[in-house]
Amino acid sequence: MSNEDRRSLCQRIRPWIIPIIQGIIVGVIVGAIVVIITALISIICKPPDFSISVNPVTGATNPGSVEQTMVNIGRIWYKRYKYSVTLCAETQNPAIKVTFIPEGGPTPPYNSTMKINIGSGVSEDYYIIEIEGIGGDGREHTCKYVLFVRSIPDNGEPPPAEEEEMFVGGRESDVYHYSNCRYVNMINAENIIWFTSVEDARSHGYRPCRVCRPP
Ligand SMILES: [Zn+2]
């Protein structure tokens, strides 16, 4: 190809380059606008909803006593959830009775005190209490509370150290947590695994959570 030819090729291509670049830029901008509008529509069209959480998520007490914790009913960011939310709880043992004050009624956000009455015959173990909020429009959300029942000596001595430090993992992951980690609340009750020590967790192939940082 001679220099003449090369120059004439350049001259033929040049008028096309700018329109092509402009076309690409316009295409990218239009695409981005479509994506943003679609995302906004999907957020706006989502019906209002509520959330439910409990804090603290674990507690320890002895048989025949009362334990309490706070349940929070929230609304999901900017939307006003217009229905009242009623609370109920399912315990794994009929001798563990749960009451809420209030039991529900107000529209979110509100707090309710959850009182857990532990019968004197309840055996030492841990119990998962599933707290359910039912909205006036039929929406349901749940969260979990883990209750340790154990005999704490009357002389006020703390319980034995090996019972104090229990670690929690989920069947669907390989991470273990302190029992009060916020991620424990996200593990399905049926998937919870308890480890009596860090060695126990590690020997099962579990690694420490990066949020609650157990040893
Ligand atoms: Zn954790």
What does this 3D model show about the protein?
This protein has 215 residues and is α+β, with helices and mostly antiparallel strands. It folds into 3 domains: 45 residues; 101 residues, Sandwich (Immunoglobulin-like); 51 residues, DNA Methylphosphotriester Repair Domain, CATH 3.40.10. It has a 4-stranded antiparallel beta sheet, with no helix packed on it. Strands 2-8-7-4 form a 4-stranded mixed beta sheet, with no helix packed on it. A 4-stranded mixed beta sheet has the order 11-9-10-12. It is elongated and about 100 Å long. The structure holds zinc ion (ZN). Zinc ion binds next to loops.
Per CATH, the class of the largest domain reads Mainly Beta
Number of domains: 3
The chain-level structural class is alpha+beta
Q: CATH fold name of the largest domain, please?
A: Immunoglobulin-like
Mean pLDDT: 84
Rounded to the nearest angstrom, the distance between the terminal CA atoms is: 72 Å
Shape, principal axes of CA atoms: elongated
Q: What attributes characterize this protein structure?
A:
single chain, 215 residues, alpha+beta, Immunoglobulin-like, DNA Methylphosphotriester Repair Domain, four-stranded mixed β-sheet, binds zinc ion
SSE map:
Elements: H1 3-45, E1 50-55, E2 58-61, E3 66-75, E4 85-90, E5 96-101, E6 110-118, E7 125-135, E8 140-149, H2 161-164, E9 167-170, E10 175-178, E11 192-195, H3 198-203, E12 207-208
Parallel strand pairs: 2-8, 10-12
Antiparallel strand pairs: 1-3, 3-6, 4-7, 5-6, 7-8, 9-10, 9-11
The structure holds zinc ion (ZN).
Zinc ion binds at residues 177, 181, 183, 209, 211-212.
